[in-house]
Automatic annotation (TrEMBL):
Ranges where the Sporulation stage II protein D amidase enhancer LytB N-terminal domain occurs: 15-96
GO CC terms, sorted: outer membrane-bounded periplasmic space
InterPro entries xrefs: Bact_Sporulation_Assoc, SpoIID/LytB, SpoIID/LytB_N
One of the GO biological process terms: sporulation resulting in formation of a cellular spore
Domain of life: Bacteria
Protein name: Stage II sporulation protein D
Pfam family, one: SpoIID
Amino acid sequence: MNLKSSVRLLMPDGTVRAMPVETYLRGVVPHEIGAGAPLEAQKAQAVAARCYALTARRHPEADADLCTTTHCQVWTPATDPRSDAAIEATAGVVAVFQGRIIHALYFAACDGRTRSIEEVWPQYSVPYLRGVMCPAPQQPMRGHGVGMCQTGAMAMAAQGASYEAILRHFYTGIELVQGRYAAQSVRLVSRWLPVEEAGALRLALLDVMEQPTFALEGEETLAWRLLREERFTARRRALAAELSLPGVTVRLHAPDGRVFTTLSGTDAAYGVGGLEIATPRMGTYRLHVGGQQFPVQVGDGVTVLTLQHAQAPGQMRLVSSPLDEESAAEILATLEDRFAGLFTPLVVA
């Protein structure tokens, strides 16, 4: 089975960093299950985290797969040789169900049994996410309860179970296979277009497909200036913005460290480049547009910023996130049906 070779990680400062999957896992495993956990439990965690990283697409507006918090998987630059050994021992191993890599949910501890996914999220039905008895001593539930119980995994490892047995216990009916990372990846790129057309095309692609995500090449070079800041009474608390261009990535950094990402043009109520983001609390936020940031004080009601691009390059193009060759060919065929001749594949290392 071919695996994509890297993930795109949304960093705390709002930037996105591409990172090889196995390198990424070094910053995940010791922080999700603990470097002091039994080796077989850490191996099970490495496989689960690898599967999660390969299937998660949780920050598409930022052209990122994952963030570094519990919203996705906790990642820090700190590594541990004990966890490194578990990752190396399972390098490329993934859990699959009916030929597809599973979405390997996991959580900290349970009350003696895990939950089927329908018990927590009734709108979903996933055959391999079934409730099972947990071998760990009963304790208060910590986490959503679906998938692998990390405390249960450690208990099984302490009793002599292999990582394969642990994973097969918590994920019903799976197989474990050895994947291999693709030697090269492909990006799909559009023709060079006027800036307004490129931004509008980026928004149009959101209606056509969820993946891959497309970025505007050169949007970081756009210069912006704040024309005005207005406040309106409303029953909701939100920050809205009216940008002079659609399809531009906008990130809002909240006082509590959370980052909200969207594209200009996703809320037509504020014009061609309009957007609105719900703000969870009052305080000083930082709005990042391109390489600039604008501090804004958010209170009750809706705060609206109007931003104008001072000077834009004559043309820009859309560039997709990295894809394996097979996926790129399938997606390119879909794009050809809607945008004939607009996109071409570009092979990257």
